[in-house]
Every structure is written in C-alpha cells, then in structure tokens.
Write a structure and sequence with these properties.
Elements lengths: L1 H25 L2 E6 L11 H13 L8 E5 L5 E6 L1 H8 L6 E4 L2 E4 L4 H4 L12 H5 L2 E6 L37 E6 L11 H10 L3 E6 L2 E6 L7 E6 L1 E2 L2 E3 H14 L3 E4 L1 E2 L10 H11 L3 E5 L17 E7 L3 E9 L4 E5 L11 E5 L4 H4 L3 E3 L11 E5 L12 E4 L1 H12 L5 E4 L3 E4 L26 E4 L3 E4 L18 E4 L2 H18 L5 H10 L15 H4 L6 H4 L4 E2 L4 H10 L4 H8 L19 E5 L6 E11 L5 E9 L5 E6 L2 E4 L5 E10 L9 E7 L4 E10 L3
Parallel strand pairs: 6-10, 6-13, 7-10, 13-15, 15-16, 16-25, 19-20, 20-21, 21-22, 29-36
Antiparallel strand pairs: 1-3, 1-4, 2-3, 5-12, 5-14, 8-9, 11-12, 17-18, 17-23, 17-24, 18-22, 19-23, 26-27, 28-30, 30-34, 31-33, 31-35, 32-34, 35-36
Helix pairs in contact: 6-11, 7-8
C-alpha cells in the first residue's frame, strides 16, 4: 500500500510539472529584449551574444524558431519567443535594459501643399541639388513602386551616403527615386493596403498632373520635396504592425543613411519610453542626427489620448484644409441638402423613391435607403445616412452622410410626403474658409508620460487628402469594392505626419547642417497660431500644439531652442530614470543629479501640470535660445494672452541682444495665477521679435483637478 501511494504521489507530481510546463509554453509570446547602445568593443558580435543569451535562458541548444529579430546595426537587442518565466530571467541579466511584449501598432494631395503655402512652380524656392541628396525613410505598410509618384525618370544615381538595399521580393524593382526597401513581414514590400504608398507620396512623391479620384479633386499630386529620394520599410500587414518589426526598421533605417524618418502608426495608449519601440528607435535616430516625425494618433477628441509623447519626436496632429468634399442630396420638392462622402457614382440627377429605416429587400430594391445609422445596401439605388465622422470617406455605392439637422429635415420630408423622392449627386470639391480646424479624430493631450511636455507639437493637413494608392487595395472600407485606383482619398493623423516630414526635409535641404532639434524648433516656433474653438482641452493647445506648420517661414526662424542627446538624458533623469539604465541606453556614463525639472527641458513650447486647481501658484520655465538670424540683432519679448483663467507672465530678461550668429542667450519665464479652469486651461504665447522674425512659443498651465 505504501509503495502504491508513493507511486501515485510521484505520478501526481510528474503530471503537475508537465502541466506547469505546458502552461508556460502556452504563454509563450514575442518579447523585445532591449540592450541599449552597441558596445564599442571590436570583438563584440551582437548576433552571437543574442543567441547565447537565449540558449542560457531556455536551456535549448537550438533556438530555431525562438529568435525573431536581432537588432545589431544602430543599437543592441533582439526579439524572441519567450515564456513569462524566461522573460523574467532575461530581465535580470547584465546588459539588459528592458524586456517588454511586442505590441500590435495600428496604421494611424493635390491641394494640401498649396494650402500650406508651398505653391507649385517657381513661387516656392527650392534647393534642388541638396533636395536630390535627401533621403526620407518611411516606416509603414510598404509601397507601390510602379506609381508615377515614385518614377525614377530624371533622377541621378542615389546619394553616396546611401547604404541600404532593395529587398522587395519577387517582381519588385527599385529605381533612382525609390532607392531602397526592406520587408519585416515576410510578405514582400509591395503595398497591399495603400497606406504606405499614400504617406510616401505625400511626403516626397513626384509632381503628377491630372490626378483625381474618378474626377473628384482633380489637380497635380505632389509631395513636399518631390526631388528627394524614398526608402520604404514595411512593418505592417492587414492585421497590424508588430512593434518588434518597427524597432528593426529603425535599426536599419539609421544605418542605411536616411536623413529623416516618417512613421504614421502607433498604439491605442501612450507607453513608457523604455517600453515603446518608436520612442527607443527615434532616440537612437536623434543621437545620429536623424529627426523622426510621428503621427499623434486617431483617438480624439478625448483628452490624454496622444500616443506620440517623446520630446525627441516631432508629433503631428491632423487638421482640415480649405478644400472639402461634399455630396448633395436633391429632394423631390426641389430642396437641396448637403452631406459628406467621396461619392464617385453619378445618378445624373435621376430621382428615386425614398425608403426610411426599412431593410426588407423587396422594399429597398431600386430605391434610396434612408437610415439613421451608417448603412448601405447592394440592391438599393443609393443610401443616405447621418454623418458620424465629420469628414468625407469613400463609399462603394452612391451615398451621402447628412448632418443631424439636415437628416431630420429629410425625415420630415419623407413623413409629410405621399411619394417622397430624391437623388444623390456625385461629390464635388468646395472651398472651406474655416480651415484649418483640428479633426475630431486627432488625438489630444495632455501628455500622460511626461506631463510637463506639451504634445502634440504641431498640426498639418490630415483630412480628405488625395495621394498615391495601391491598385491592390480597396479604395473604400468595403472589401468587396471592385474598383482599383492609382490615387485615393484618406483621412487621419497618418496623412498629417508625412506633410510635416516633407516640411522637415524641405527645411533640411536649405540647412543640411541643422540638427533634429533645430529643425523641430524652427517648425514649431514659426507655425501659424490657432485659436481654441470651444471649451475643454479638445479645442486648445492640447489639440494643435504650436499651431499649423508654415514651411516657408521655417526656413528662417531667427531663434531656435537647441537640444542634444545629453539634454534628453538629463530630461529622462528628471523622470527618475536610473543612471544604470541611462548608461545602457546612451552607451556612455550618465550621472543623474536630480536638480533639473522636466519642464526645464529646452523645448520650444512650455507646459506645466499643477497639483491643485483652487490655489495660487508660481511656475518657472528656464530656456536658452540660439541666434540663427543676423549679427547685432535685438529681440524683444511680448506676451499674448489667449484663453482660460487670467495669468501673469514675466520674462527675465525681457530683451535679448546678440552680437553674433550662433550666440546663445538664456531667460526665465515666470507664470503666476490662481484658480485654474479644468474646462479651459489658461494659455498664452511668448513671442521674441526683432522686427523681422517672430519666434513664438505656446505657454500652457493645467490641472486634472486633484
């Protein structure tokens, strides 16, 4: 009996162990193991080190299928399939900065460049020789190489600094415009979604005349720097964009020799810098002199939704342009209602019976379906619904989305008419005098990771943008849409981001020596000011940052706020990062003194979160500006108060005199006030002016009411 019990106990223990191991294996997922900068030792081989770590942690001599990616060109680390317990063991190993799960990021113009002041032709000056040597790296869903927007005709050989490759897969050819591609999806770089093609052409596409979406929005499609080169890094598939792939793309893009990076994707929520591959990759890009331009996110208008939160990134919100698309509905009584959609179908004014809220096939067929909820029918002649987006999207069938008031007017007509009829017209473009207005979908601040850094930084056109597209992709959300197009209309902060990437490249063509922070400062401090359009953070600087980009003004900013890697490390110290972690990130010894405050980072905007809303306060911002204007110049400070509770702002000194170009001067901004409004946080603008330049920085003080 004793032997039988002992045997049973052993069986139970054995099965428990097996089950535990099975559970552990079932929990296996991809983790990013970030190891900071590459060691400078000549005998160090990253791949061997990564394999050795995996073998030690897993106890497996063969790690085939475990190692997903190795980061070895611009920084150090790898991505691997690990169990939770293995992840914990890796995290404790010497040299490992952080270990975090690989996340799934989401993908976040014939008139837009004119609207931004960069007119086509000779009216906008260009430095074509340098522009042709400028390389924009686009991390996205790939690219359609046959698009006219990426034709290599007329281009010389790639810049000598280019060290990339053309790994496009079967039937894919690069050229002198599209000089390199890399794939991290095992699908090939060819774009099956259209998103990467659209963003690439917006930033740097050739000028292509007579482009439109079936005649809608006809004009010349072009990027901000048409003479520049493009390198495409495909990290996204139809199911999303893995963050471990994104880090690989940064690793390669930096080493390949791109001049700046445009990335229009991100998560649903902001992440800690050490666990966000976009923040990590862009930090190393910044350290190598490469600016990263990033979309703010599409989770607006709710506050604190901005996901692009690192100060070494230029974060972009989306606005409307002065061209909008509308679709008219003409009723049987002659009344015309105006809705939104990009409707390429022409019913030629023919009237059809209107059917309200009925989905019976026999009642809808051949008629116009009117539904309060977004819907379409394959058997209806057309559909009319309510506008739930605030911007026009492409429809696979004739459709118009009416405002709530116009929809109620339509319902009233149907209910009061014996045989109600109507027609949906083909979409047309109109001039929108109210532009730019921040799009409702554009993610808002405050910044949840660094509460004293104002994000987003600037806005750019991101609503109803016409640009190059993939013929493989459906132009509408309806995947059964049989149409194939070369140019299409999209909206999102994804569309705003490459506009600013194009602006940054444009500035860099005139100032190749400028650092990422100088370019970022020039773009922010010369932006067009915008006004709050209502109560709440959704309509203030937390929506538009410093304002709408002004490309031509950014060439000559006067004064700039400079930052380098050491400044950003000091900023991270102020967020209580440890010296050990910072050394591994930077590759050099860093001593955190703890004397600085995050709000004293030499950033072009100034923001402070207060702990209480109902008491008086005094907040100081310390800044240093560099003169890039003229020698023997004097800048006088001016405060323009905007909205919210009354503030008192003092600038010391109030006048800055420079004898030389590149000379630096420091000043302090002191803000006092009381009883801060949560609904409309108070703000102002500091403007330094020498009579020619107006260097503007937004100032925002806010509270969450605690």
């Amino acid at each position: 009996m004793v032997k039988r019990v002992s045997f049973c106990l052993l069986v139970v223990l054995f099965l428990s162990s097996v089950l535990a191991n099975i559970d552990d294996l079932q929990d296996k997922q991809v983790y990013v193991v970030y190891m900071g900068s590459l060691p400078s030792r000549p005998d160090y081989t990253p791949m061997s080190n990564h394999m050795s770590i995996l073998q030690e942690v897993t106890g497996e001599s063969s790690i085939e299928g475990r190692l997903v990616r190795s980061y070895k060109r611009s920084f150090n680390g790898f991505a691997a399939q690990l169990t939770k317990s293995e992840r914990e063991r890796v995290a404790e190993m010497e040299g490992v900065v952080s270990v975090f799960p690989s996340k799934n990021y989401k993908l976040q113009t014939t008139a837009s460049w004119d609207f931004m002041g960069m007119k086509e032709g000779k009216s906008t000056k260009r430095n074509l020789a340098i522009e042709s040597d400028t390389i924009i790296g686009v991390i996205d869903s790939g690219i359609w190489p046959e698009s006219e927007s990426f034709s290599g005709k007329g281009f010389g050989p790639p810049p000598k600094k280019w060290k990339g490759v053309c790994s496009g897969g079967k039937n894919f050819t690069c050229n002198k415009k599209l000089i390199g591609v890399r794939d991290y999806t095992n699908e090939g770089v060819r774009d099956s979604q259209g998103h990467g093609t659209h963003t690439s052409s917006t930033a740097a596409g050739n000028a292509v005349a007579d482009t439109s979406f079936f005649g809608i929005g006809n004009g010349t499609a072009r990027g901000g720097v048409p003479a520049s080169r493009i390198a495409a890094y495909k990290v996204c598939t139809i199911i999303g964009c893995s963050s471990d792939a994104v880090l690989s793309a940064f690793d390669d893009a930096i080493a390949d020799g791109v001049d700046l990076i445009s990335i229009s994707l991100g998560g649903d929520n902001p992440s800690l810098y050490e666990e966000d591959t976009i923040s990590i990759g862009s930090f190393h890009a910044m350290a190598k002199g490469i600016l990263t331009v990033h979309s703010a996110g599409n989770s607006g208008p709710s506050p604190a939704t901005v996901t692009s939160v690192a100060p070494w990134i230029l974060s972009v919100a989306a606005t409307t342009t002065n061209r909008r698309f509308l679709t008219k509905v003409v009723l049987g009584n002659g009344k015309t209602l105006v809705g939104k959609s990009v409707n390429a179908f022409d019913l030629k004014g023919k009237k059809y019976p209107l059917v309200y809220e009925s989905f019976a096939e026999s009642l809808v067929k051949g008629k116009i379906l009117v539904s309060r909820y977004p819907s379409m029918s394959d058997i209806a002649a057309a559909s009319i619904t309510t506008d739930d987006k605030g911007f026009a999207t492409i429809s696979s069938r004739p459709l118009s989305a009416l405002s709530p008031d116009d929809f109620e007017s339509l319902v009233s007509y149907i209910n009061s008419t014996r045989s109600p009829q109507g027609s949906v017209l083909k979409s047309e473009a109109i001039f929108d005098q109210a532009a730019p207005i921040v799009a409702s979908f554009s993610s808002r601040g405050p910044n949840k990771i660094a509460v004293d850094i104002l994000k987003p930084d600037v806005t750019a056109p991101g609503v109803e943008i016409l640009a190059a597209y993939s013929p493989w992709a459906s132009p509408s959300p309806d995947k059964s849409d049989p149409r194939h197009v070369k140019y299409s209309v999209l909206s999102g902060t994804s569309m705003a981001c490459p506009h600013v990437a194009g602006v940054a490249a444009y500035v860099k063509t005139f100032h190749p020596e400028w650092s990422p922070s100088i370019i970022q400062s020039a773009i922010m401090t010369t932006a067009w000011p915008m006004n709050a359009t209502g109560n709440g953070t959704s309509s203030t600087e937390f929506a538009y940052g410093a304002g709408q980009v002004n490309p031509v003004a950014a060439l000559n900013p006067g004064l700039v706020y400079e930052l380098d890697k050491a400044d950003h490390l000091a900023f991270l110290c102020s967020l209580n990062y440890t010296s050990k972690t910072l050394k591994l990130i930077s590759g050099e010894a860093v001593t955190c003194t703890g004397k600085t405050l995050p709000r004293n980072l030499n950033y072009p905007s100034m923001s402070a979160k207060l702990s209480r809303s109902n008491s008086s306060f005094t907040v100081e911002f310390k800044r240093t500006v560099t003169n890039l204007g003229t020698p023997n110049s004097t800048f006088k400070s001016k405060i323009v108060y905007n909205h919210g509770s009354k503030l008192t702002i003092k600038v010391t000194p109030s006048v800055l005199s420079f004898k030389m170009v590149n000379e630096k001067k420091s000043f302090t901004v002191t803000v006092t006030g009381s009883n801060i409004s949560q609904e409309l946080p108070p703000s102002a603008n500091l403007i330094w002016s020498d009579g020619t330049h107006n260097v503007r920085s937004p100032i925002v003080v806010y509270t969450d009411g605690n």
